[in-house]
Each structure stands twice: as C-alpha cells, then as structure tokens.
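Hey, I was hoping to borrow your eyes for a little while. I've been staring at a protein lately and its backbone has me curious. You're getting the sequence in one-letter code plus the fold written as tokens. Would you mind checking whether the tokens look sensible for this chain? Here's the protein in full, and shout if anything looks odd to you:
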Amino acid sequence: MHPDELQQHLREVQELLAGARPAEDEENGDRDGGELSFALVLLAPERADALRARLDALHPADIAYILEALPLEERRYVWDLVKAERDGEILLEVSDAVRESLIETMAPHELKAAAETLDADELADLAPDLPPEVIQDVFQSLSNDEREQLRAAMSYPEDSVGALMDFDLVTVREDVTLEVVLRYLRRFDELPDHTDKLFVIDREERLMGILTLETLLISDPEKQVSEVMRREPKISFSPDDDAGDATQAFERYDLVSAPVVDRGNKVIGRLTVGDVVDFIREESEAEILSHAGLREEEDVFASVWDSVKNRWAWLAINLITAFVASRVIGAFEGSIEKLVALAALMPIVAGIGGNSGNQTITMIVRAIAVGQVEESAMKRLLKKELGVALCNGVIWGGILGALAWQLYGSVSLGLVMTAAMTLNLLLAACAGVLIPIMRQRLGADPAIGGSVMITALTDSGGFFIFLGLATLFLL
C-alpha cells in the first residue's frame, strides 16, 4: 500500500475514534472530574460498525501500523474490534514493544487461539512473548511434524538462517513428468508465498536441484523433471549460517527464495525474500536505536517509567562525560576570563569534531554490518580516515581561523583555531574507526552507544585541545 493511502486509513480511524463518547458511570450516573479512561469510552454503534468494517478491509500489516500510531487506550479499543482469527497475523507484524502491550490485554484462551492460526516458523517468532502455559497448550495441540518444526525453529540462534527459514515449501521428484507436477500443483488452494521455484529431491529428501516455475510453464509437459531442472542450485544455505550473510547473498544474486539444507543435504526449509526484508528492517531499526544508546525498541506511547528504564543507562554515561567536559573547561577558567573570545569559539571546535566523528563511525559500522570490514583492515582504515580528517581540518579549520582573525583582530587566535580544529578532527577520526572495531573484537555490538562515546571524546578533547593551545600561545 502506498504511504499516502496508509496515512489516509490512519486518519479515518482517528476521525472515527474522535467521535467517542464517555460511557455513563454505573454507580454515580455521571462523569467524575479529570480524564476518563478510554476503557470507559464508547463509540456510537454506527461509528463502531464503520471502524470494524474499515479494519476488516485492511491487511494485517496495515492494521499493525495503525495500532502502533495510536495511544495505549485507543489502541486497546481498536484491538478489541479486530477479528479474533486475525490476531496472530497482526501480532507478528507489530513491533515488539507494541506486541507486549497487546498481549497484556488478552486472556490465555485468546492467546492460544491466536497462536494456533500460525505456522511453526511464525509461532517460533511469537513464542518468546507468550506466557509459558500458553506455549505449552499450543505445543500440545500441534501435530508431531509441527512440533518437530517448532522445536527446530526455536533451537537456532536469533540471527541465524534457521531462525528465519520457512517450512512451507513445495518439493517434487526428478523421475516424474512436468505434467504430473502441474497436476500436483493444481491440488493446492494456493502456493506458499514467494514461490518462484520447486525443490527437486530424491527418495531420501536430499536436494538434487531446482525447477523454476518459468521452466515448468514453458517446457514440454511430457518431459521429465530431470531433463529440465537445474542440477546445481544457484545458492543454498545451512540453518546455522549467519542471517546477515544470507541477506547479502539475496541482494547479490537477486534471489526470491533459496533452499535450506542440513549437513546431509536434506531439504529442511527455505529462506524467502520476505524473511530477508523483515530481518533487514529489524536490524536497521536496532542499529539506529543502539547508535543513540537505546537498549531496545520503544513504544512511543509507552508509560513514562518504561521509557525511563529504556533510556537511563546511556544518559547516565552521557552525564558523566558531560561532567568531565565541564571540568576540562573549569581547569581553564583563568584563560577564559583573560580572553573571552575563547568561550565563544570553543563550542565550534567541539561541535565540528562530534559531527565528523559521527560520520566516520556511521560509515565503519555500516561496513562492518555488510561484511566489508575485517579487523585486519583497521590500520588501512585508520590511515585513510586520518587523511580525510587532516584535509578537512586544514580547509575548514583555515576558514574558521580566518574568520576568528577578522572578528577578533588576532592572527595568533586564528592559528590556534585552525590547529585545534585539525587536531580535534584527527581525534574524531581515530575514535570513529577504533570504537566500533574494538567493540567488534570484544564481541560487543559495534553500533551501541557510538554517538554517545564520540560526543564525549570530541567535547572533552576539543575543549582541552583548544583551551590548552590558547593558554600556551595566547596568554
């Protein structure tokens, strides 16, 4: 759906909710002062019917978007209007934080009913958020094959191909004709999503090759699968493969789906472009959040306390670093008193350094994420970024130095400004390269808190460099 259409649907839902009226208090017969909980708010019957009809016509992903954009109490009201058989699909589409708020409103039997509508691979994604007793009830209701699939899906690490793979696939034998394959496919109500190829297996379910739908449709129906199939799949994955590597392969080879095989080359699932896109989106969101020092995705309408818990850690670190920066300035109070221009110019040095450092760390983190940077490349990257910083320092530091000379009539102040800018950019370049690579070497996420650490170093370092040079050469 086009973003403009999605926004229009959201506005329509919000307009319908705007017609809500307070329910009459059963005990007092009137409304007490203060805000009324939306749990006690009703829509006129015709508006509720219109809202329900609007939701029924939308895709689960679009309903998920609308739920994420509504305040908590309105979200719960809309959630109650969604058809129960769609609950599972929508819970998979919403963000983790919003999913938690919706699950809190559901009774165990409702959660069980929602989970039972999902395939094993989808259930594995939802399972960590469900109460243990609900998972146990759902597990007991599955067939033996589905139980094994669920166990398998939940056994793989979160960032592995096995955690992303889909068990819903179509396999055929190589010793049958294409006419038999076509008759077999006609028995399906619908093919699994993103089916662009069939997987050819032998009697032991080992992967022998692939048969694309294009080949199936344009080839003589009397031919056998073995005559037209591609013997070697363009690419296949092991369930233990890194999901990030798999996403790069999908991009590189323009894949729609690919088989997942075990060590014996037995087909156990497939990876689809839909799974890959979801993984890329989640990783991208996680990287943005971690770069800002947020521990997890946050519901924008979450309670104050939940938001405080998510944000406090890096804010505490930032408070400490800001205090250190203030003490650096305090150490040069005498210099600032003698030359007031220093107070006006030093934020420029720190600010430009922070911006440059964030540019560098963003490039390095992205390169690490797509597998373009290994630890062995650190020296080459450091040399390159130092060169960039030196050029920028000389050019922009020179411009700022000239402006300082013109404003304050001091050539020495202009030269100090140029030198301080250059040195702080060099410091930012070193930090931008070393911080993510060292975190990677220590087994930590290279992106987490990068902007906070860069800002801390360039602020304290910039103040110290500029005020130190000014104290040495101007006073």
